[in-house]
Amino acid sequence: MSFPQPLPRDARPHRRIRSSVRAGLVWAVVAAATNIGVWLVATALGIDFTVWPQGADSPSTKAGPLAIAGATLLAGLLASLAVGVMGKLVRKAVRWVIIGGTIVTIASLTGPWDQPDAVLTSTRITLTIMHLVTGALVTFGLARGMWTDDRAVKV
User: Fold this and answer.
1) pTM for the complete prediction?
2) 28 touches 76 (CB < 8 A)
3) Quick check: 24 and 76 in contact, CB under 8 A?
4) 3-state helix, strand, coil in the chain (%, to 5)
5) Who's near 47: CB < 8 A, 6+ residues apart?
6) Distance between start and end Cα atoms, the chain
7) 37 and 154 in contact (C-beta within 8 Å)?
8) Could you give the dihedral angle defined by the CA atoms of residues 151, 152, 154 and 155, in that order, rounded to the nearest 10 degrees?
9) Are 114 and 108 in contact (CB under 8 A)?
């Protein structure tokens, strides 16, 4: 007597963009909290967070905790939407999440280092640390979420 075996399932159609957005926002909140902690320590050390967001010709602004948290959450949301769509389109998405996250994180480092000369090196280093924290935590969280989705669907 033989029992019918279930058909092997393809992982791609079972992924939901909502799952990626949830994972991305959770890890973005963790990254935002870490970045605010970095900001608090840097501010206590006397590091000034005056930056020029649009270049030397624009007015300067102070990067405060709300701006830092908002930028981190926005980065996590955009990354999670991209990963959610990519998860439905490609196989072995975890690999592409890690590669894409690494490339975007490296590309984001131009922000702190393309500031005018008036921005202190200590500010640039602190902002670089924040970019690396955001990139690493959001990429790890999205890759982990995608990896557990893949494992759950395998037959």
Assistant:
1) 0.82
2) yes
3) yes
4) 70, 5, 25
5) 120, 122, 123, 126
6) 22
7) no
8) 140
9) no
